[in-house]
Amino acid sequence: MDFSSEIVQNVRALYPSLADGHAYLDGAAGTQTPQPVIDAISDAYRRGLGNVGGVFPASERSTAIVAACRAAVADLVGGLPNGVILGPNMTTLTYRLARMLTGPGDEVVVSRLDHDANVRPWTQTGARVRWAEADPVTGELPVEQYAELIGPGTRLVALTAASNILGTRPDVAAICEIAHAAGALTYVDGVHATAHGPVDMHALGADFYATSAYKWSGPHIGAVVADPVALESLHPDKLLPSPDTVPERFELGTAALADLAGVTAAVEHLADLVPGRGSRRERLVASMTAAEEHELALFAVMMSGLETMPHVTVYGKPARRTATAYFTVAGTTPQQVAEHLAGRGVNVWSGNMYAWELAGALGVRESGGAVRAGLVHYNDRSDVERLLAGVAELRSTRAGRT
After folding, report:
1. What DSSP designation does 89 have?
2. 204-242: per-residue pLDDT in tens?
3. Strand runs (DSSP E) across 233-358, as ranges?
4. DSSP notation for 177-235
5. 154 with 301, same domain?
6. What is the pTM of this model?
7. Residues 115, 293: Cα–Cα separation, whole Å
8. Structural domain of residue 86, as residue ranges?
9. Degrees (nearest 5) of the Cα angle 129, 132, 136?
10. In this predicted model, what pLDDT tens digit does every residue of 91-147 receive, in sequence order?
């Protein structure tokens, strides 16, 4: 089912923060939170929580919340509940796993397309690092280079499912196939990608798939999903009394239990974006497919508008991408652009967005990066039109100063 204007308005009505009248084009840094998620977190606190594993009702509720969260995340990405590792964020979880998966004597392949959270944890383990280069003009991550980069000594290949500044969706499945043929593991950063379309981590070839709920309408919780059998062979440092079962052995300390209830509610929210039947996994695929089509239709309008402005430079033109634009405005710093748009009720970010290597490859890192405007399922055409009007004003402002 398509995202009709009625569906868009119904979805927007679920987000209390959108009532402030701003155009929220900052979703790539974190989405707004719908009422069902707010209610789920509030209800968890209201009903009472205890640590997991107890015999009293509050503890039993917490145990059920954790199990429900694992099942929900597994449905979202096409994994198994007992392979879902939960934590405070993707960066923390990736640092933990990097030290278990690689070390001195190993070889890892990382890419300059990635967010630094899927680069630095691997380069700081003492492993030998090989770099996959992104094309600075197109924003693509050429698959062919991986045949040269990956060899018998490669322990792990880390790559993104979508660039968080250019939106590039590389051919993850083809790259993972090359990695697996050489006996290497694959660690796929799905933080940006998960919010923008259906995910099947097995079809991608991801041995480990990382995601963060606050990028798809949930609270600040991260997750890494893997094959439970593969996790059995890993033994992290942990407290002696803490569980040694999978995936619990990877989770340090007491979880943010109420937030985990919010994660489940966020997945349910995504599954119900468009009316449908079937299992939650089936509804998620249908809803996220429709959401992606909606975002890309709006994005075509955004890109057409930006690219026709002579004072705007848009970076990257990948063949397959999320609805994410990265651009600069002549004569105006990215920070000034963001401030100008904020004054007109349009929320965007400026800078390198932690895409440290890619911002360097694009030649913008040392000059303040660029402006990022991204669309998610609750955005509508008026958001795009306000962005374009605000950016267009900067041309006339510049003309008036000269």
Report:
1. -
2. 999 999 999 999 999 999 999 999 999 999 999 999 999
3. 312-314, 324-329, 346-347, 349-351
4. HHHHHTT-EEEEE-TTTGGGS---HHHHT-SEEEEEGGGTTS-S-EEEEE-HHHHHT--
5. no
6. 0.97
7. 25
8. 38-271
9. 135
10. 999 999 999 999 999 999 999 999 999 999 999 999 999 999 999 999 999 999 999
